[in-house]
Amino acid sequence: MDKQSALQQMIDESGRIVFFGGAGVSTESGIPDFRSVDGLYHQKYDYPPETIISHSFFVENPEAFYKFYKEKMLCLDASPNAAHRKLSELEACGKLSAVITQNIDGFHQAAGSKRVLELHGSIHRNFCMRCGKFYDAAYVRDAAGIPRCSCGGMVKPDVVLYEESLDSDTLQQSVELIAGADMLIVGGTSLAVYPAAGLLRYYRGGKLVVINKSPTPMDQSADLLISGKIGEVLGAVSCR
Ligand SMILES: [Zn+2]
User: Fold this and answer.
1) Which residue numbers are catalytic?
2) Cα–ligand 1 centroid distance for 154 (angstroms)
3) Among the four residues 71, 190, 216, 239, which has the most C-beta atoms within 10 Å?
4) What spacing in Å lies between the alpha carbon of 129 and ligand 1's midpoint?
5) What is the pTM of this model?
6) DSSP letters of 125-182?
């Protein structure tokens, strides 16, 4: 049996699939991958991206943070791809319990997914640091320089920056979903980013599928390892 057929058979036999995804899921939508060879690390800025998107840099240099953030992270023109759409379809047909993502672009929800756990937050939620008022992504994009609230406070994206901790409820729910999954599909992530690899250890089933273009630390543990583009592989799956 070829790998695509093996994947389909596993999906056919499952009803509590959890998908765990990373940057690679969105690169096919044109969103740059922070850690890939042609990703942000190789572009020219005054500071390396991992410095700019840290909490201390945000506090000390909000202007430079927002310049980078708006140019490189606030990708409001891109749209979901075949992977996002298929995951939404799998949820709608009762196969998939949830998507757990390391991405902040909101594409899973845009594609129709209902249960999405965003480990690193979302560009679509922004809050005044003084009064807590909500602002959408377009407000941040359209602000000249640092986005300000009507109260004068600075508006901060609900995105987990380096040095910041992940939301504990989101982490706990992710653990429970993974532990209760009858199939776990891991896609588009090198699993290099905390807490990805640690979370996946909670899976106890026998259908761990890894779909990635490059090797991951989970490859040895995978029941099915598919080297390829996530949009093409998932796109070919059917919901039957
Ligand atoms: Zn305010």
Assistant:
1) 120
2) 7
3) 216
4) 7
5) 0.93
6) EEEETTT--EE-HHHHHHSSSS-B-TTSPBEEEEE--BTSPPPHHHHHHHHHHHHT-S
